[in-house]
Structures are given as C-alpha cells and as structure tokens.
Amino acid sequence: MQPTRTNRSQTALKFFLLALLVIGLDQFSKWAVHTYMQPGMPGEVPLVGHWLKLHYTLNPGMAFGVELPPPYGKILLSMFRLLAVGGLSWYIVRLCRQRASAGFIACMALILGGAVGNLIDSVFYGLVYRNAPFGAPTTWFHGQVIDMIYVDIYEGFLPHSWPLLGGKYVSLWPIFNLADSSIFIGVALILLNQSRFFQQEDVGPQPAADASEAPARL
Fold first, then answer.
1. Would you give the end-to-end CA distance of the chain in angstroms?
2. CB 136 within 8 A of CB 149
3. Residue 114 burial by CB count (10 A; 0-12/13-18/19+): exposed, middle or buried?
4. For a Cys staple, 197 with which of 19, 28, 104, 126, CB 3.0–4.6 Å?
5. Is 147 a catalytic site residue?
C-alpha cells in the first residue's frame, strides 16, 4: 500500500520537533525517576489504586526483558536501534517530499522519538547512571533502559471453568516508559487509521473473456 498523498506540502522540521519533544519528555521522566525514586517496591508510588503505579526498574534488553546473548548481544541490539532510527528519519523526509498525510508522518515521528529515547538509554546510561550489568565489557552501549509505568492488570490463577487456560497461573503486569508508550501510540494510530493513511487499490472490472479463447468442449 502507498501512503495517501495530499495537496499540502509538508516540512520535515515540525515532525522532527515532535520527535524531539517525545525524547525530551522521556529523558526527563527517566532522570526524575533515577534521581528521586528508590528502585523496586520500596520506592513504588501508587497512582490509581493498585492498578497503576510508578515503579523504578531496569530493563537490560528489549521489550518484556528479552535479551540477546552476552557479551556482545547488547551492542548488536544498540546497533540495530541506531539503524532503525536512521531508517525512520529517512522515511519521514521521504514522506514529506511525497506530501503524505500529516497524521501518518506524525505517527512515524512518535515512533522515531520513542526509538531514540530507548537508544539513548542503551548507549549512555551505563556511563551516566552506571547501570551497566555486572560483567559488561564496557559501560558504553551496555546501559539498561529505565522503566517506571507499572500497570498491574492481573496476577493469579485463572478460573478452572475457562477452556484451555483454566487453572493456569498468569502474570499480566507490564512495566514500560514514555518512549515505549510513544511507539505503541504511533503504531496503534497507524493501524486504526489505515483507510485514511493509505491509498486503497481500486480493482476494476475484469475484461470479459473472448469467445475464441474459450476452451473447446466435447
């Protein structure tokens, strides 16, 4: 699918400023959490009952704590994030030149801002906040991402009456940060607005088959 084109010219600068705003808010929140909160449950701050909390924790890898094999897996992950940031930046400039929908470009800017936010953690936090895992070959590119938004959805055994999953123990408590939120919002808005952000391919009527090309019948 091709992005929907408009008659209005787009300036890439305003979308990069949106990404910069996301980066600034993300980095400020991580600095504040690191400076004023204790890690783990001792520093936990309830926001909405027991469902939404601030909880200072470190994520050494990707989403859901997935890690690549040490000692160089972290460096490979950081390099991949750096390439992704470069690709997203190029794509935003290209979309502006194509006069794509401003809403779609803004979503890409949200994704870019979130990707840069977590990349900064990986590259610099091992040195700035000294949170590189024990045994890391270098503090550069081995920083751990700071997460703090804790959504305690459910933890316990599912009812036995449920098919397939009944009686199993589940833990649904994602912990993420503003950069993750920005990426999620950008992707979700793109999925919800596909009909606006992308051109729909028109399938014209199929030409009638010529009688001479019809297969002979016995």
1. 45
2. no
3. buried
4. 104
5. yes
Helix residue ranges, H only, the chain: 12-36, 73-97, 102-128, 178-192, 194-197
Which amino acid is residue 217, in one-letter code? Answer: R
Write down the catalytic residue from 26, 121, 152, 180: 180
Q: Which amino acid is at 212?
A: S
**Secondary structure (3-state) at 58:** strand
| From 26, 121, 147, 152, the catalytic residue | 147
49: left (phi over 0), alpha (psi -120 to 50) or beta: left
pTM attached to this predicted model: 0.83
> What burial letters (b/e) apply to 39-49, b meaning 16+ CB within 10 Å?
eeeeebeeeee
Per-residue pLDDT tens digits for 47-95: 998 889 999 999 876 554 555 556 666 778 888 889 999 999 999 999 9
